[in-house]
Specification:
single chain, 657 residues, alpha+beta, 5-stranded mixed β-sheet, 5-stranded antiparallel β-sheet, 25 helices, 24 strands, 38% helix, flat, binds adenosine monophosphate, binds zinc ion
C-alpha cells in the first residue's frame, strides 16, 4: 500500500471506529459486533505500525499511549471552576426562587441530576482534545489528559460544526456496577476496597499509569460551559443539546420547569429514578435556562447565583452492631463482618455489612454493641458509614482479629502489599466450601442445587476433599444426605462436564481470572489440555497470564490436571468449537488484504459463515489470500510461494454463493 493510500485508509478507519465508539458508548446502540470492531482496530494498529509518521493525535489507538507521568501539570482555570451553593430542603429552594424573582423575570428552570463524581474541564484546540483537568482548588487543577483519553466516550476530536477552540465542563464518574466489580476484585486480591464510586474515581485519576486508568470503568457527563467556545446559545438546554451533537455524553435525564411546583415534581421524580442511573447522584441541580440571566445574576465567590444544588438526604439508617464475625473466603482471606440488628434501608432489609479488614475497623473504631449509621456504597453494598459515639455506654467491646483461622485453626499470613490476612492452610475447610460454591455458581458450572448450604454439608461430611472430588462422590451418600436434590445434583454434575472451556477456567477460581479474562483466554485455546501447556500464555505478559501458568505449575495444579485426565475431562473452547463444519470454505485459512468495495469486517463475517478461518497474515496454513485493490506484487508473490491461492473480490463472492 502506498503512503497516500495508507493515509486515506487510516482516516477511514478512524472515522469508522469513532462512529462505532459513539454508537456503543454514547448512544448505547451498537450496530456491529465485537469481532468486527476488533478487525477495524487491528487494521488501524497495523497500518500505524507500518507508517508511524501517519499516527494521528486523535487516533483511537492513542487512548492508552500516554507514558506514566511523574507528576501532574498545573492547569489554570479561566473562569474558575466554581462549586454550587447547596440547599437541603424545599423551603431553602423557595428562598432561592424568591431571590431570583426579585432580580429577574420571564425565565424557566432546568433540573438536572447532580452527578457524584469528580469535576472535569475539557479543552479542545483545532477541534482536538488538548487538555483535561480536574477542579483542584477551583483556580488551578491537575492536568489529567492521558487519563481522560482512556475513557472511550470522551471525543478525541470534534465535528466540523463545533467551535475550533472549545472548553466544556462536566463530571467524570465511575459506573456503579463497575465500582462493585472493582471492589470485588480488590477484596479478592487482598487490597483495600474503595468506600464509594466517587472515591474510586478520584483514586483512579491519581494513578500514574494511564494503562491502569484504562482498566477502570470511568465515564463522563458534560453539563456546563467552559471559558471558550460556548457563547452564542440562548439557553443552557440549547447548549447541552449542542454538546450532544458534538459527541459529548450528556445526562440521560433532565426536565424543564417554569414554576416551583414543577421544580419539586422534577426533583421528586429524579429521586425516584436515582438508583436507575449508571452513576451515583447526590441530588439535583436547578439552573435558570436562559443564559442572558446568568450574566445579570453573576456569581458569588462560591458559585453561580443562577443555579442551586438540592441535596437529597443521605439514605442511611441507624442500627446496632450485635457481633463481629470473621468469614474465610475462597482464597483464604479473612473478612470481618458486622452482624447488625436488621434494619430497612433503600428498599431492602440489611443484617450484615462487611468491615473489609482490620485496618478499616481500626480507622472507624467500630466496636461490638456500637450504634452505627449504615449506607449503601455504590447504592448496593451495605457499609458502616460512621459510629455514633455519643451513644456509647461503655459496654462496647473492641474487636480483635483472630490469631489463627477461625475455621481450621490454620496459620494466618499477611502477604506483602496486601491489607488482608489469609488462612495459609491449603486444606482449610472454609476455603474449600467457598471454592465449591464458586465452582457451582451461575457463571461457572451453574449447578443450581449446589449452593452455600449444600457446599457446607459436602465439606463437613467429607463427601469431597477437593473440587474435582465432586465428580466421584459416593452416590448413595449424596442421595442419603440430600434426597431428591442429591439426584439432581448428580445429574447436574454430569451435565457440567460438557460445558465449554471458559466456564471451567472461571470455575477453577485462579486469582484474577474473572469471567471476561476466562473467555478471552479460552478463545485462544482449543481444549483444557491445550491451555495447560500453552505457548500463547507464555507470550502474554499480563499478571493474570502468569497466574494461570503458575497455577498449572504448582503441586496443586499438577494434581488438578492429572485428576482431570483420570476423569477423562477435557472441556473444549467454545470459540474454537464454534467453527463451522460445513460450507464452501470449511477449515480454510483466509487473509484479506488491500482495498475492497465493502468493509473488511463484512467479508470476514461472510467467510466465517462459509466455514473459513480469518487469519491476520499469510502463513503456510493460508488457503486463500483475498486481494483487493492496490496490493503490492511482493505480497502476492510471497503468498504464492507459500502455496496460497491469490483471489480477487469477485472470485471470493463466486465461492461464497
Ligand atoms: P459539591 O461537590 O457537593 O460542592 O457540588 C458542586 C459540584 O457538583 C460541582 O462542582 C460539579 O462538579 C458537580 N455537579 C454534578 N452535577 C452537576 C450538574 N448537573 N451541574 C453542575 N454541577 C454539577
Ligand atoms: Zn482456614
Amino acid at each position: 500500500m502506498k503512503r497516500e493510500e495508507a493515509q486515506s485508509r487510516i482516516a477511514h478507519l478512524i472515522d469508522e471506529i469513532k462512529k462505532h465508539d459513539r454508537l456503543y458508548y454514547v448512544e448505547a446502540r451498537p450496530i456491529i459486533g465485537d469481532r468486527d470492531y476488533d478487525l477495524l482496530e487491528k487494521e488501524l494498529v497495523s497500518l500505524e505500525k507500518a507508517y508511524p509518521e501517519l499516527v494521528r493525535a486523535d487516533s483511537p489507538t492513542q487512548r492508552v499511549s500516554g507514558e506514566p507521568i511523574s507528576a501532574f501539570a498545573a492547569v489554570r482555570h479561566d473562569p474558575p471552576m466554581q462549586s454550587l451553593d447547596k440547599t437541603h430542603s424545599k423551603s431553602e429552594l423557595e428562598d432561592f426562587d424568591r431571590f431570583i424573582r426579585k432580580e429577574v423575570s420571564g425565565f424557566t428552570y432546568v433540573v438536572e441530576p447532580k452527578v457524584d463524581g469528580v469535576s472535569l474541564s475539557l479543552r479542545y484546540e483545532n477541534r482536538l482534545l488538548a487538555r483535561a483537568a480536574t477542579r483542584g482548588n477551583a483556580l488551578v487543577g491537575d492536568a489529567v489528559t492521558n487519563h481522560i483519553r482512556t475513557i472511550k466516550s470522551v471525543p478525541l476530536s470534534l465535528p466540523e460544526d463545533a467551535p475550533e477552540t472549545l472548553e466544556v465542563r462536566g463530571e467524570v464518574y465511575m459506573t456503579r456496577d463497575g465500582f462493585v466489580k472493582l471492589n470485588e476484585r480488590a477484596e479478592e486480591e487482598g487490597l483495600e476496597p474503595f468506600a464509594n464510586p466517587r472515591n474510586a474515581c478520584a483514586g483512579s485519576l491519581k494513578q500514574l499509569d494511564p494503562k491502569v486508568v484504562a482498566s477502570r470503568p470511568l465515564d463522563i457527563v458534560i453539563y456546563n460551559a467552559g471559558g471558550i467556545g460556548c457563547d452564542g446559545f440562548n439557553s443552557h438546554s440549547e447548549m447541552v443539546a449542542a454538546f450532544k451533537r458534538w459527541g459529548f455524553p450528556i445526562a440521560p435525564w433532565f426536565k424543564s420547569a417554569s414554576t416551583m411546583s414543577e421544580v419539586f415534581d422534577a426533583i421528586d421524580e429524579l429521586q425516584r429514578l436515582r438508583h436507575s442511573f449508571r452513576f451515583e447522584i447526590d441530588g439535583a441541580v436547578i439552573k435558570i435556562d436562559e443564559r442572558k440571566f446568568h450574566d445579570v445574576l453573576g456569581a458569588t465567590a462560591h458559585g453561580p447565583r443562577w443555579a442551586r444544588a438540592y441535596k437529597y438526604a443521605p439514605e442511611r439508617a441507624e442500627t446496632i452492631v450485635e457481633a463481629i464475625t470473621v468469614q474465610v473466603g475462597r482464597t483464604g482471606i479473612l473478612t470481618p463482618v458486622a452482624e447488625l440488628k436488621p434494619i430497612e434501608l433503600a428498599g431492602s432489609v440489611i443484617s450484615r455489612a462487611t468491615l473489609h479488614n482490620a485496618d478499616q475497623i481500626a480507622r472507624q473504631d467500630v466496636r461490638v454493641l456500637d450504634h452505627v449509621y449504615i449506607v449503601k456504597a455504590g447504592d448496593v453494598i451495605p457499609a458502616i458509614e460512621s459510629v455514633i459515639t455519643e451513644k456509647r455506654t461503655g459496654e462496647e467491646k473492641v474487636f480483635e482479629m483472630p490469631s489463627v483461622c477461625p475455621v481450621c485453626g490454620g496459620e494466618i499470613v499477611k502477604n506483602e502489599g496486601e491489607v488482608a490476612l489469609r488462612c495459609a492452610n491449603p486444606a482449610c475447610g472454609a476455603k474449600l466450601k467457598r471454592r465449591i460454591e464458586h465452582f457451582a455458581s451461575r457463571n461457572a458450572l451453574d449447578i443450581k442445587c449446589l449452593g452455600e448450604k449444600v457446599a457446607d454439608t459436602i465439606v463437613e461430611m467429607k463427601l469431597a476433599e477437593d473440587i474435582l472430588d465432586l465428580f466421584t462422590m459416593n452416590e448413595l451418600m449424596v442421595i442419603g444426605y440430600f434426597g431428591k436434590n442429591g439426584e439432581k445434583l448428580l445429574d447436574a454434575l454430569d451435565e457440567a462436564k460438557k460445558l465449554p472451556l471458559h466456564r471451567w477456567l472461571f470455575a477453577i477460581g485462579i486469582p484474577g481470572v474473572g469471567e471476561t479474562i476466562a473467555k478471552e483466554i479460552a478463545a485462544k485455546h482449543e481444549t483444557f489440555f491445550d491451555l495447560v501447556d500453552s505457548s500463547v500464555l507464555k507470550e502474554d505478559k499480563r499478571v493474570v497470564a502468569k497466574a494461570i501458568i503458575d497455577f498449572f505449575a504448582s503441586d496443586y495444579g499438577q494434581k488438578f490436571v492429572s485428576t482431570m485426565k483420570a476423569l477423562d475431562l477435557n472441556p473444549k473452547s467454545e470459540a474454537k468449537s464454534e467453527i463451522k463444519t460445513s460450507g464452501p470454505l470449511v477449515g480454510m485459512g483466509c487473509v484479506i488484504t488491500g482495498t475492497l468495495s465493502r468493509p473488511r469486517g463484512e467479508y470476514a463475517k461472510l467467510i466465517e459463515l462459509a466455514g473459513g478461518v480469518i487469519q491476520s497474515s499469510v502463513t503456510s496454513k493460508t488457503k486463500y489470500l483475498i486481494a483487493g485493490a492496490n496490493v503490492g506484487e511482493s505480497k502476492t508473490s510471497k503468498a504464492r510461494a507459500l502455496g496460497t491461492t491469490v483471489i480477487g473480490e469477485a472470485e471470493l463472492m463466486e465461492m461464497l454463493k
